[in-house]
C-alpha cells in the first residue's frame, strides 16, 4: 500500500469511526470532543515517532524504553521545576532522555544487542531506579503552570499540544524524507552493509536514531505531566505497546527502511478514535485488546499482500 | 573434545553465571541443597523453564513469539473456567486446553510460516488477542482448577518430584528432536532459510512445526502454573514473554537463529529464577528490588555480548 493511499485509508477509517460514534452516541462529533481526541492522539503520535525512528533504523528496530524514558522525563522535570524553572527543567529532562537513547543506540549499533533486548533491559533499570529515587527523595511532582498550559490548554480552540505535535510532524517529515541524515537512516535500515559501503557511518546513524527517540520520549513525558497534572511512576507505560502498534499500522516496516511519518500520525488518530469509540459503547478491556490485535493483524496482512511482489 | 563442544555450544557464559548465582544463593541460604528447598525451587521454576524452552525452539528457527505469556494466561483461565462436571471431568478440561494450546500455536504458525508476517509484530498482535480472550473468560482472578492437578504436581513418582520429571521428559524430548529429521530442519531453517530451501527442506512446514511444538510446552507450562495457583488469572503469564526472551539470550541462543540449544534456555531460566531467590534472601529493601533485577539482567546481557564479541574476533 503506498503512503498516500494509506493516509487516505486511515483518515477515512477515522472519519467512519467518528460518524459511527455520532450515531451511537450523539455529541461524539462535537468540536470539544474532537479537540480532546486530538490531544490524546498527539501524545500517542509523539511516542509513535520514537518507534518510527527506531524501526526505520532496521535490524528489527524497536524502542521498548519509551515508557520508562517518558516517566523519567516527567518525574525529573517535575522534581527540578521549583528550583530551576520550566525551561531548564525541561532541558534537563530532554538531556536525560537523549543520554538514555544514546546508551540504547550504543548497545544496539556498537555491541550488536538486539533492540528488543537492549531497550527492554535499560527500561527495567530506569523503572527500578525511578522507584528508588521517588521513594528516597519524594521529589515534588506537580506540573508547573507553563507545562500545564502546553499540555492542557487550547489556543483558538486548538489544543496547544496538537500545535506542538504539528510542528514536530513537520520537522519529522523533513528529517525522515528530505534530509541527508534521513536518507542515510533509511538506507541503513534497508541494508546496513550497502549503506556502509556507500559511505554512511551506519553505527553513528543508528545510534543517533535511538538518541533522538530517547530525547523525544523524555520531552513527551515532560509534556504529559502537563496534560495529567502531575508526574507519577508508570506515567509512560501505557504508550509502549500502543506506540509500536501505531507505527506498524502507519506503514513503518519492521525490517527497516524508508517510511513516512504521515501514515503513523494518521494511525495515531485512528487508534485514538477507535479506543474512545469502544470505550463509549462500553466495550471493556477484553474486547478492546481483541479488536486492537485484529486491527494490527489486518493491516499486517494487507501490507503483506498489497505490496507489489518484487 | 568435550570441552570444545561445550565452548562451541555457547552455553559457557550461562553456565558460569549459573554457578555464580547458585554460590550466592547457597551463601545466603545454607540449606539451598536440602531436599525441601530443591523441591520447592523446581516446582516454582518449572513453568518458567518450559516457556523458556518453548521460546528457544522458536528462536532457533529465527522467529520470535511475544504471545507466549498471554498464551499461558489464556490456557490458565481456560483450565480454571471450563466446567468440571462435563463428561470425563478434569481430564476433558485438560484435553480441551491442550487442543486450545495447539490451536493457538497453529494460528501463530500459520501467520508467520504461511502468510509470511514478521513474527515479532504478528505474535505481538496475537498476544493482545489472547490476553483479550483471557480477560473475557475471567475478568477477575478466580475460578477453580481441579485440586487433583495440584496433588499430582506436588507428588513424587519413583522418588522424584513430578515437576523435575516433567523437565527431564521435556529435555529428553529435545534431545530426541535434535536427532530427528524435523529438529535438523528446524535449525537449518533458522540458520539460513534460503540455503535450507535450496537443500529441499520444507521451510514453511518446519516453521509451522516449531510453533506447534513450542505451544505444546506452553500447555505444559500453563498446566504446571495452574497446578500451583489452583485458580485463574488473566494477568498471570504477563512477565513470562520477556523472561523467556532474556533466558534465551543468557543461554547463548542467537536471536538471529540457528545457533544454540534448548539447554541454554534451561540455564537461562534457572539463572533468572535463582537471581529472584537471591534478591529475596539477601533482604534487599523492596524499593531496590526492581532496580537490582534490572541491573542483574543487564549485567548478564553485557556478559553475553562480550563473550560473543570475543568469539567473533577469535
Explain this structure:
The complex is a heterodimer of chains A (310) and B (314). Chain A has 310 residues and is mainly alpha-helical. In chain A, strands 1-2 form a two-stranded antiparallel sheet. In chain A, strand 1 and strand 2 (158-159) form a beta hairpin. Chain A is built from 13 helices and 2 strands. Chain A has helices at residues 3-24, 31-56, 66-84, 86-110, 115-137, 145-152, 160-178, 180-190, 192-197, 202-228, 239-249, 261-280, 285-306; strands spanning 154-155, 158-159. Chain B has one domain (10-313): ABC transporter involved in vitamin B12 uptake, BtuC. Chain B has helices at residues 2-9, 12-28, 35-60, 68-81, 90-114, 119-137, 147-154, 162-179, 181-191, 193-198, 203-229, 240-250, 262-281, 286-313, and strands at 156-157, 160-161. In chain B, strand 1 (156-157) and strand 2 form a beta hairpin. The longest helix of chain B is centred in the last third of the chain and has 28 residues, at 286-313. Chain B is globular. Classes of the chains: A mainly alpha (310), B mainly alpha (314). The A-B interface holds A 60, 62, 107, 111-114, 116-118, 120-122, 124-129, 131-132, 135-136, 241, 244-245, 248, 254-255, 284-294, 296-297, 300-301, 304 and B 64, 111, 115-118, 120-122, 124-129, 131-133, 135-136, 139, 242, 245-246, 249, 255, 287-295, 297-298, 301, 305, 308-309.
